[in-house]
């Protein structure tokens, strides 16, 4: 283990600093204290914004190739330290080590992608309506960016926001979740080694998520805020950001449907269900929350899914062969227990799991014939629970899938190409997985519709969130 990546100081204006107070980072698999990091104040956050604001003009005017090369160097350092980053991530988030390794690659892919895209921030020329005029547009960095990231993907959610911001010439103040600050600070160490100038990338740690969020959302030196988290918090941040008309991009709550039609390859659907449901113990924004299975294949799918779920190994993510780690907190565990009890009380059949283990662990669970009135039908569980609902017709399945205020990810399985097009177009979601339970990559736009967010991360559209279009008109 590379001890230099266990950073216990915040990163502000090119320096690692201690705070007057600190808080502990807990391993959810063991309950042990991993480290203590600074519990910074609102005043510290305010001062950090000032540093980022002061650093912006110079970074904005730096040649695009220099910015691209610096971001690329950050990518190379992330890959070189993959094992250590994954171990830190597993210790503080609880996810299995194999998943953490995959996340490092996934997160690094955004850094590589935007290092390349930094050289392709194109404007356009416009045919002029008058002789002698010349009309064109250029794209310029928006300014100081506030990035607020969650605990469930402590590395990838950073790179999806920070890499495009830095690549196009913005400076960044990052506020990572208090459960997983060590991954963010390790990434700051690597960014420091990559050679970003002082003030360009900053990491503020602290327990006061509401206070820091308010400072980042209302400070008039912040021009853009990017947040991944709950719809409730996103709604509050959006209202606060409206005071200074900030540019915003939010990836919020999900309630992902997974439809299995009667013409599906059931075995493939089961594999997709396992991949899309149990990653990070079901604690992902695109995790499947509601399984809608057409009546003709319901029993077959339920039986095969139950068999597969019972084989999953639960335990400490650092142990060999573990596939399902702990919940992140006691609150998370209590929500899972509440949802399962409510579903069973309302008539659901318990086919597997249905009970907690010692600590923050919960047995992977399958519930069949869940009532539409159950809590799990309307709320995101964020845990290792498969809730199976029946439907009869294609129209009914689509209607059930769309019966939610959320619209982040959705999935379905069918071998009928015409049905694939019909269903994909009618599902109210920003992303649709067709015969797959995994859909995200750096080249694709990630984001939702309805109350699941605004804006897109990744792909060429990811840069749009951090730039403004400026129109230039040359007279005769």
Automatic annotation (TrEMBL):
<feature type="active site">
    <location>
        <position position="251"/>
    </location>
</feature>
<dbReference type="InterPro" id="IPR016161">
    <property type="entry name" value="Ald_DH/histidinol_DH"/>
</dbReference>
<comment type="similarity">
    <text>Belongs to the aldehyde dehydrogenase family.</text>
</comment>
<dbReference type="Pfam" id="PF00171">
    <property type="entry name" value="Aldedh"/>
</dbReference>
<dbReference type="InterPro" id="IPR029510">
    <property type="entry name" value="Ald_DH_CS_GLU"/>
</dbReference>
<dbReference type="InterPro" id="IPR016162">
    <property type="entry name" value="Ald_DH_N"/>
</dbReference>
<dbReference type="InterPro" id="IPR016163">
    <property type="entry name" value="Ald_DH_C"/>
</dbReference>
<keyword id="KW-0560">Oxidoreductase</keyword>
<dbReference type="GO" id="GO:0009450">
    <property type="term" value="P:gamma-aminobutyric acid catabolic process"/>
</dbReference>
<dbReference type="InterPro" id="IPR050740">
    <property type="entry name" value="Aldehyde_DH_Superfamily"/>
</dbReference>
<feature type="domain" description="Aldehyde dehydrogenase">
    <location>
        <begin position="21"/>
        <end position="471"/>
    </location>
</feature>
<dbReference type="GO" id="GO:0004777">
    <property type="term" value="F:succinate-semialdehyde dehydrogenase (NAD+) activity"/>
</dbReference>
<protein>
    <submittedName>
        <fullName>Succinate semialdehyde dehydrogenase</fullName>
    </submittedName>
</protein>
<dbReference type="InterPro" id="IPR010102">
    <property type="entry name" value="Succ_semiAld_DH"/>
</dbReference>
<dbReference type="InterPro" id="IPR015590">
    <property type="entry name" value="Aldehyde_DH_dom"/>
</dbReference>
């Amino acid at each position: 283990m590379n001890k230099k990546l266990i950073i216990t100081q915040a990163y502000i204006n090119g320096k690692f600093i201690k705070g007057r107070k600190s808080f502990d980072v807990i391993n959810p698999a063991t309950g042990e204290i991993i480290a203590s990091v600074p519990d910074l104040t609102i005043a510290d956050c305010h001062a950090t914004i000032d540093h980022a604001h002061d650093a912006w003009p110079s970074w904005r005017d730096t040649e695009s190739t220099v910015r691209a090369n610096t971001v690329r160097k950050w990518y190379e350092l992330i890959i070189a330290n993959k094992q250590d980053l994954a171990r830190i991530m597993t210790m503080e988030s609880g996810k299995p080590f194999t998943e953490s390794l995959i996340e490092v690659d996934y997160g690094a892919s955004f850094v590589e992608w935007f290092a390349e895209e930094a050289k392709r921030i194109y404007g356009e020329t416009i045919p002029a309506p008058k002789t002698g005029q010349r009309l064109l547009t250029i794209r310029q960095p928006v300014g100081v960016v506030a990035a607020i990231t969650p605990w469930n993907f402590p590395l990838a959610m950073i790179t999806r926001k920070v890499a495009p911001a830095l690549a196009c010439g913005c400076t960044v103040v990052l506020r990572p979740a208090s459960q997983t600050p060590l991954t963010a600070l390790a990434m700051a160490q690597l960014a420091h080694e990559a050679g970003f100038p002082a003030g360009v990338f900053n990491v503020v740690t602290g327990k006061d998520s509401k206070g820091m969020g308010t400072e980042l959302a209302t400070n008039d030196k912040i021009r853009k805020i990017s947040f991944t988290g709950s719809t409730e918090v996103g709604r509050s941040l959006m209202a606060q950001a409206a005071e200074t008309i900030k540019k915003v991009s939010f990836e919020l709550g999900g309630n992902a449907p997974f439809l299995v039609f009667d013409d599906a390859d059931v075995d493939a659907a089961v594999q997709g269900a396992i991949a899309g449901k149990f990653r990070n113990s079901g604690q992902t924004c695109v995790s499947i929350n509601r399984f809608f299975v057409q009546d003709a294949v319901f029993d077959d799918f339920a039986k095969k899914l139950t068999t597969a779920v019972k084989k999953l190994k639960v335990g400490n993510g650092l142990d060999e062969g573990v596939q399902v780690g702990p919940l992140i907190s006691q609150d998370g565990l209590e929500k899972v227990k509440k949802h399962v009890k409510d579903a069973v009380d309302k008539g659901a059949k318990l086919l597997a799991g249905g009970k907690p283990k010692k600590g923050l662990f919960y047995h992977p669970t399958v519930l069949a014939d869940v009532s539409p009135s159950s809590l799990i039908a309307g709320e995101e569980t964020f845990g290792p629970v498969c809730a199976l609902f029946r439907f009869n017709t294609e129209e009914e399945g689509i209607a059930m899938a769309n019966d939610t205020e959320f619209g982040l990810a959705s999935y379905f399985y069918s071998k009928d190409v015409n049905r694939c097009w019909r269903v994909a177009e009618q599902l109210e979601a920003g992303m649709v997985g067709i015969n797959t339970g995994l859909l995200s990559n750096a080249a694709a736009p990630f984001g939702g519709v309805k109350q699941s967010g605004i804006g897109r991360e990744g792909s060429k559209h990811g840069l749009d969130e951090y730039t403004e279009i400026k129109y230039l008109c040359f007279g005769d």
